[in-house]
Write a structure and sequence with these properties.
The chain is an alpha+beta fold. A hairpin with a 4-residue loop joins strand 2 and strand 3. About 30% of the residues lie in helices and about 25% in strands. The strands form five sheets. Strands 5-6-4-9 form a four-stranded antiparallel sheet. Strands 11-12-10-15 form a four-stranded antiparallel sheet. Strands 1-2-3 form a three-stranded antiparallel sheet, with no helix packed on it. GO terms for molecular function: rRNA binding.
């Protein structure tokens, strides 16, 4: 313990002498190892009170500066007994669907599986997987069938739900699918179904592993389009034998983007199609042009094409 006067401590620290010191008040300081405690007798002087509150010991300042804020507790993914908490049924079903979807995508990209899979386009929306499998069962044993490109009526509804409930877009009458056979030779035989009519729909059937692009010299481009594949079949079959019809569609909604292609078996049908003028289909005037301008110029020398139109441009 020791005695000191108010003002002496500040003079000691700053090395100066404070004139007109206030009345000397004796205080007792108890010094411990951890902190310094000050006991002060009661005083009515406001100046003395301010000075007392302003005095801090070195140990107190150090203890405040070194004090650390408590860390936030991390959320643990385990229970008190160390076991993982049980997941809800919805979470388990969602994880199972995602896992199965990833597996299916990997299987679909397998070259061996693609070699015995056929693509089938322009299927009627009234078709289900059972009827779809039965349609191609005559060509061999089938491992799986898949329906894709479902034209949904409500964007908030999934394609799977729309297929189950048969809630399709009112302007769409078709979707596409895939058939995977046990043997490749059976898949090759199934391509015989190409251009055949099933429930008033002209089917488009081809192997998935063959990049068989149609001959552009035998194809025409159709713009300003708002119709289905079978509408184009009926419109252009008077020009010649139609090999296939393809309408470019949006991947999510399945709605056409306003253009498509008609492929013929010979180039003579192309020349006849290009001669058609003011062709109306469902209230729209179609823009008809040739797909391959180079082939058209070559055929013009042989008097096969009377008029050459740039691709995608109106006549």
């Amino acid at each position: 313990k020791m005695d000191y006067a108010i003002g002496s401590l500040s003079d000691l620290i700053t090395g100066s002498v404070t004139p007109n010191k206030p009345k000397v008040v004796k205080k007792q300081i108890t010094v411990s190892e951890s902190k310094l405690q000050i006991t002060t007798p009661q005083s009515n002087s406001s100046e003395d009170s301010l000075k007392r509150n302003s005095v801090k010991t070195t140990d107190q300042i150090n203890s405040v500066s070194t004090e650390k804020t408590p860390k936030k507790r991390k959320l643990l993914d385990t229970n008190e007994n160390g076991s993982k908490p049980k997941k809800s049924k919805n979470s388990e079903n969602a994880e199972r669907r995602i896992t199965q979807k990833v597996k299916n995508e990997k299987r679909e990209e397998d070259p061996e599986l693609l070699s015995r899979t056929v693509f089938v386009g322009n299927l009627p929306v009234t078709l289900n997987t059972k009827k779809f499998k039965k349609l191609f069962a005559k060509y061999g044993n089938i491992e799986a069938v898949r329906i894709r490109g479902v034209p949904i009526a409500d964007p908030k509804t999934s394609k799977k739900v729309a297929l189950i409930k048969k809630e399709f877009h009112p302007e769409r009458k078709s979707f596409h699918g895939y058939v995977r056979f046990e043997k490749r030779e059976d898949a090759v035989k199934a391509t015989e179904m190409n251009s055949t009519i099933y429930q008033d729909h002209h089917l488009r059937v081809c192997l998935c592993d063959v990049d068989d692009k149609p001959d552009e010299s035998k194809a025409i481009f159709i713009g300003n389009l708002n119709a289905e594949e079978d509408d184009l079949w009926k419109l252009f079959e008077s020009c010649g034998s139609v090999a296939s019809v393809r309408i470019i569609r949006d991947g999510k909604t399945g709605i056409g983007k306003g253009f498509g292609y008609v492929n013929f078996h010979n180039s003579d049908a192309v020349s006849l199609a290009l001669e058609m003028e003011n062709v109306q289909l469902k209230g729209r005037e179609l823009r008809i042009s040739i797909c391959n301008l180079g082939a058209a110029k070559k055929n013009k020398k042989n008097n096969k094409v009377k008029k050459i139109v740039k691709p995608g441009k109106p006549k």
